[in-house]
Structures are given as structure tokens and as C-alpha cells.
Design goal:
Blueprint lengths: L2 E6 L3 E7 L5 E8 L4 H16 L8 E6 L10 E2 L2 H12 L5 E5 L4 E6 L5 E7 L7 H11 L6 H5 L13 H13 L4 H23 L8 E4 L6 H11 L3 E2 L7 H15 L1
Parallel strand pairs: 1-4, 4-5, 6-9, 9-10
Antiparallel strand pairs: 1-2, 2-3, 6-7, 7-8
Length: about 260
């Protein structure tokens, strides 16, 4: 029987359909927008269409993310910490530390050898260093947020931002542009600022990364500039799955399957 996982984030809503073996049958990523319920319906519909299924063909649904308690028909709601850990182990089973950078929060999740969450740290009080931060900075640079990673790759000068606060950093970017700094150099500086912010979270759960395979999930993981900056800051390789933004929804779908089996 097919199982559905839905992850409702601040910027996007993801849905993943799996079969009894945990294989992905269909998935979708849609903007959350101002109406969460509409985004959930669209994500569910598109994932089912991709899987070639009707709504009635789903055995169980588990919801996660900040809007998880508002999903009609869900078997249960599970925290994104648990779902992201479950999802990353399905695709990168050696992972022991997961960094998840979403639209408005960041998480560092330490995973025990038995697959359980051993510890986590979360930045959910400020959008600094998150997807919203990068979107705001991209607007300041007048580039598409999807181009920030490739833009940073051609930087020739290191720039250090004095603030990671979204409001102050945006003003700083404007000042740097006015002073003649190259957009590529500013972009790399922004990524290094995100990495420095994330490093603080990582150190709270894993003071040493010796022997800990590190992976990254969330939409920001598609930004190669952020991944490079994290690798430099952490001093380790950071693995990124093929579909980093749907890891939470995948974990939710796997939990739906597991609950039905128990």
C-alpha cells in the first residue's frame, strides 16, 4: 500500500508518496504561500498524480513541519526533527550529523548509531542564516536566489559581513555595492556568514566531528555556495542527497508506513 508524508514549511510544502518497500513513487514541492491548506492540497494532489494514484489509494498520511497540526486526514503529526532524521537515514544511512536549513529556521541533529535522535539544536527565533535570509540578500544583489551559489564560485576577494541579522545585513550589502564590491565577492561573504551561524548550532550538539559523517537537508542544500562554505567552516565533507528539500516529507511517509505495520 502507498503511504504519504507531507512537510509544511514556511516557504514550501513538500509531499512524498512511497510504497511498502520505502521506494518513492511520486513527490512534489510547491510554495506554501499565504494559505497553508491550499498548499497542502496542491502538494498532495501533485504527488499523487506523479505516483499515478487516486486520493483514496493512500493507506496513511503523516504530517510534519510548522503547519503539521492542520493537515486533514493525517494519521498523526510528527516533529520535523524526527522526520528529517528518519528521511536522511533512508538515503544516506551512514549520516550521524544532519544540518537542515529551511525557510526560517536551522537545525543541527545528532543521530545515534541506532537511528534515534540523540540531540539537536535549533534556531527558530530569527531568520538569520536561513532561506529567507538568502532570499533577502539576493534581492539586495538583484540576482535570482538560485544563482547565488554559482555567483559565489567566481569570487576573487574575501568579504566578511559584520552582521548576520537579515535587516542589518541587507543594509550592509547595499553599502558594499555602493563601495564597489563585486556581487560575487558579496555572495561568498553571505554564504560564509550562513556557515558561521550554522557552526554555532553544530558545536552545541557535536563539539567534535571526528568520525561523524555529515549530511545536509532542506532547500538551502541546493545552494552549492552554502555547502562549500559549510565544508570549509566544519572541516569535513558535507553530503547532500539528490532531493534535499523532500527529506522531511520522506521521513514522514516512512513513519506512516511504520505506524501501519506496528
Amino acid at each position: 500500500m502507498p503511504y504519504l508524508g507531507i512537510d509544511i514549511g514556511s516557504l514550501s510544502c513538500e509531499a512524498v508518496v512511497i510504497d511498502d518497500n520505502g521506494c518513492v513513487l511520486g513527490q512534489s514541492v510547491v510554495p506554501t504561500g499565504a494559505r497553508t491548506a491550499v498548499a497542502v492540497q496542491r502538494a498532495r494532489r501533485e504527488a499523487l498524480q506523479a505516483a499515478g494514484l487516486e486520493a483514496g489509494g493512500i493507506a496513511a498520511t503523516v504530517a510534519t513541519g510548522y503547519g503539521r497540526h492542520g493537515v486533514e486526514g493525517a494519521l498523526t503529526a510528527v516533529t520535523e526533527i524526527t522526520c528529517h532524521a528518519r528521511g536522511i537515514l533512508a538515503v544516506l544511512p551512514d549520516t550521524r550529523l544532519l544540518i537542515d536549513i529551511g525557510g526560517q529556521d536551522s537545525k543541527a541533529i545528532l543521530i545515534a548509531a541506532d537511528g534515534r535522535v540523540a540531540d539537536f539544536a535549533m534556531n527558530d527565533k530569527c531568520a538569520a542564516g536561513t532561506g529567507r535570509f538568502l532570499e533577502a540578500m539576493a534581492r539586495g544583489l538583484e540576482v535570482d536566489v538560485d544563482r547565488l551559489g554559482s555567483l559565489a564560485a567566481i569570487a576573487t576577494t574575501d568579504i566578511t559581513l559584520s552582521s548576520i541579522c537579515t535587516v542589518f545585513a541587507e543594509s550592509e550589502v547595499v553599502s558594499l555595492i555602493a563601495d564597489g564590491s563585486a556581487a560575487a565577492d558579496i555572495a561568498r561573504g553571505l554564504h560564509r556568514a550562513v556557515a558561521a551561524r550554522t557552526l554555532g548550532l553544530v558545536r552545541r550538539v557535536a563539539p567534535s566531528l571526528d568520525g561523524l559523517p555529515v549530511a545536509m537537508s532542506g532547500g538551502v542544500a541546493r545552494n552549492e555556495g552554502v555547502v562549500r562554505a559549510l565544508e570549509e567552516a566544519l572541516g569535513v565533507r558535507v553530503s547532500v542527497p539528490a532531493d534535499p528539500d523532500t527529506i522531511g516529507a520522506l521521513g514522514a511517509a516512512l513513519i506512516a508506513r511504520d505506524r501501519c505495520r506496528s
